[in-house]
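Design a sequence for this backbone.
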């Protein structure tokens, strides 16, 4: 399952992710990965969560991010949740149209690994391409 949390910068997407991660981390058998750009949140993430600073890896663009996620799941086959904060920063591309093929690829990939993927997208909801609105979380 894929969900997009969409909102303008400063609209509370990251605090919402952190609250969810905290709740999910208390559940039995949760195996959570949190991907961010830079080490801004490491002191706020529970120690049981695998925190990844994407700047430490050669991930540039949506295609390499999909490959990176596939590699994570190949090594750790029981990841229950993947959270990606500020996806535009993570991939270095802030064009919402480019996000479409990435989400298509994830939609094909996520069911095969049984992971729930939540992505924070910094743009106004009406700027999100129509094809992606089905993935947008209802607020």
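Sequence:
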């Amino acid at each position: 399952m894929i969900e997009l949390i969409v909102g303008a910068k400063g609209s509370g997407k990251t605090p919402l992710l952190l609250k969810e991660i905290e709740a999910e981390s208390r559940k039995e058998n949760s195996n959570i990965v949190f991907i961010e750009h830079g080490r801004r949140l490491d002191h706020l993430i529970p120690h049981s969560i695998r925190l990844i600073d994407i700047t430490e890896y050669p991930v540039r663009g949506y295609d390499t991010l999909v490959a990176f996620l596939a590699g994570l799941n190949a090594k750790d086959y029981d990841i229950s949740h993947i959270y990606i904060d500020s996806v535009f920063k993570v991939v270095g591309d802030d064009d919402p149209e480019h996000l479409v093929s990435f989400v298509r690829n994830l939609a094909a990939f996520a069911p095969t690994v049984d992971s729930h993927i939540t992505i924070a997208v910094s743009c106004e909801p009406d700027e999100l391409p129509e094809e992606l609105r089905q993935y947008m979380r209802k607020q």
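The two ends are 17 Å apart (CA to CA).
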